[in-house]
């Protein structure tokens, strides 16, 4: 179970059953922010289905010892969601600065944020 998480951490999470194209099941996810006062963690789910990179607001993450991924994965930024800390199973690693900056840029674009 999650006790502390920081931006860029990669965790194995258990996503609840979704509907339609929502991601579900046990999978790695990237922490965007741990909102402790609200007891939630905002995450971006990852998938090993590389053809999902064809969707907008995604980016490819290469597996590395540092991030703990076993295979190349696609960050499904458009599937951003908040989870209860109880859904976090095991920390796998941490994204490098370049990958986290790529995700941040996609979030800014997707959410129409101004820096």
Strand proportion, as a percent range, falls in 35-45%
Q: Helical element count?
A: 1
Overall mean pLDDT:
93
Low-confidence stretches: none
CATH classification class: Mainly Beta
Main sheet, how many strands, which sense, barrel?
Answer: 7 strands, antiparallel
Radius of gyration: 13 Å
Total E-strand runs = 7
- The CATH architecture classification is Roll
* H-E string: EEEEEEEH
| Helical content band | 10-25%
> What's the quaternary structure here?
single chain
What is the overall shape? globular
Helix/strand-derived category reads mainly beta
Remind me, CATH topology?
A: SH3 type barrels
Overall description:
With 115 residues, the protein is mainly beta. It has a single domain, classed as SH3 type barrels (Roll), CATH 2.30.30.110. It is 12% helix and 38% strand. The protein contains 1 helix and 7 strands. Strands 1, 2, 3, 4, 5, 6 and 7 form a 7-stranded antiparallel sheet that branches. Strand 2 (25-35) and strand 3 form a beta hairpin. The protein is globular and about 30 Å long. The chain starts with 8 loop residues before the first strand and ends in a 5-residue tail after the last helix.
Write the layout of secondary structure elements.
Elements lengths: L8 E7 L9 E11 L4 E8 L10 E4 L11 E4 L4 E3 L4 E7 L2 H14 L5
Antiparallel strand pairs: 1-2, 1-7, 2-3, 3-5, 3-6, 4-5
